[in-house]
Amino acid sequence: MRLVRQNDKRAVKGSPGRGTRHARTRAGLAVLAACVVASACAAPDGRKAVEPAPGQQPLQAPPAGKPDSREGKARAAQAARVAMAKKWGLSEPPLLAPPAPAEKPVIRARKGFEVDGQEDLPPVFTTVPTKDKVVFLTIDDGSEKDPAFVKMMSDLKVPYTAFLSNYLVKDDYGYFGKMQSRGVSLNNHTLTHPYLPGLSYEGQLREICGMQNIMEQQYGKRPVLFRPPYGNYNRDTLRAAKSCGIKYAPIWNEEVYVDHVEWREGDQDLHPGDIILTHFRGREEWKGTMPDMVRLLMKYVTDKGYAVARLEDYL
Questions:
Q1: Cα separation of 217 and 177, whole Å?
Q2: Residue 1: which pLDDT band, with cuts at 50, 70 and 90?
Q3: HEC sequence for 230-253
Q4: Residue 272 and which of 57, 167, 185, 302 are 20 to 30 A apart at CA?
Q5: CA pair distance 273, 253, nearest whole angstrom
């Protein structure tokens, strides 16, 4: 329908009056509105006009982009891990450990490491029985308190388990408390780090239970993991440990320093579930720092296709 422009001249003699003109105008507008609402009028290009929705229409923003895909998030996380590895001097990021096993492996004393009555005592073991290609990092004593080490391990998300001796940590319990707040398990390594088999049962009890008391006072819990100093123990050691609430006595299969690795096994190789030992030490005893030790360790295990997992997840 073509709209006709209305004559704008004033009324002259013989023409309709003002009321008549207004009525005709209102009628024309009503017809036009009805035509649009009913979509009966053709648009100039021949298409039908779009029927408007009733009521006031809200302003609509452009559709938001689709949320990141799972693959996209994984790529972003990997890129962040690569950048963090580069920050700490690693050529590639540590491998990710698999999820903790739903069914925990049964832990028994390593063959040849048993004592009389072993079935009722905490087992001494060097490897966790698992097919997962993982190893476990454990760190002893507590003399070195390097803030860079805590930051590095937190940035790289490498789990580890600490075994503390009170005479070395008592000058700064807070340093290890920071580790605990980041999910690190703090455990018993005796009060004074003695050669336990040289002590009486009562002497061993004082060393182990005394450290349990310190751990509860400083960190809020009594550990269930205990490592005998130097890896030396006898039946009284495990009896005393059990009476103090200890369930496991892990030792180690490999030991890592700042510049080399030492092995218990003759094949000098890693095995699934191996426990690795190192110490809280720095330049006073090593030719480098704890971050230097971590760089050596991570290159070693990563090159062999292993991830570092959390020991407590398998116990």
A1: 12
A2: very low
A3: HHCCCHHHHHHHHHCCCCEEECCC
A4: 185
A5: 10
Residue 38 to residues 1, 29, 55: CA-CA distances in angstroms?
Answer: 14, 14, 16
- Residue identified by tokens 């720092």 is 289
Considering the entire predicted model, what is its pTM?
A: 0.78
Place of tokens 């309709």: 16
How far apart CA 90 and CA 287 sit, in angstroms, is 19
Residues in the chain: 315
Q: Which of 112, 109, 113 is nearest to 128 (CA)?
A: 109
**Token pair in block for residue 11:** 């009324």
Strands 185-188 and 161-164: parallel
**90 vs 101: CA distance, rounded Å:** 28
State how far the Cα of 212 lies from the Cα of 217, in Å rounded to an integer. 9
Hunting for tokens 């009722």 — which residue is that? 120
> What letter does residue 14 receive in the DSSP assignment?
T
Per DSSP, the three-state class of 276 is strand
Contacts of 302 (CB under 8 A, 6+ apart): 92, 94, 95
Residue 244 has which token pair?
């103090």
Q: Please measure the distance between the N-terminal and C-terminal CA atoms of the chain and give it in whole angstroms.
A: 85
Average pLDDT (8-19) is: 39
Tokens of 297: 């360790």
Query: CA of 213: how far to CAs of 102, 187, 222, 249, in Å?
Result: 32, 12, 7, 18
Identify whether the C-beta of residue 115 lies closer than 8 Å to the C-beta of residue 241. Answer: no
What is the Cα–Cα distance from 162 to 188, expressed in whole angstroms?
Answer: 8
- Residue 213's nearest CA partner among 204, 223, 198, 203 is 223
Q: What does the alpha-carbon distance between residue 73 and residue 176 come to, in Å, rounded to a whole number?
A: 33
Contact (Cβ atoms closer than 8 angstroms) between residue 58 and residue 266:
no
- Write the pLDDT tens digit of every residue in 56-78: 444 454 455 455 688 888 899 99
Rounded distance between C-alpha atoms, residue 198 and residue 209, angstroms: 17
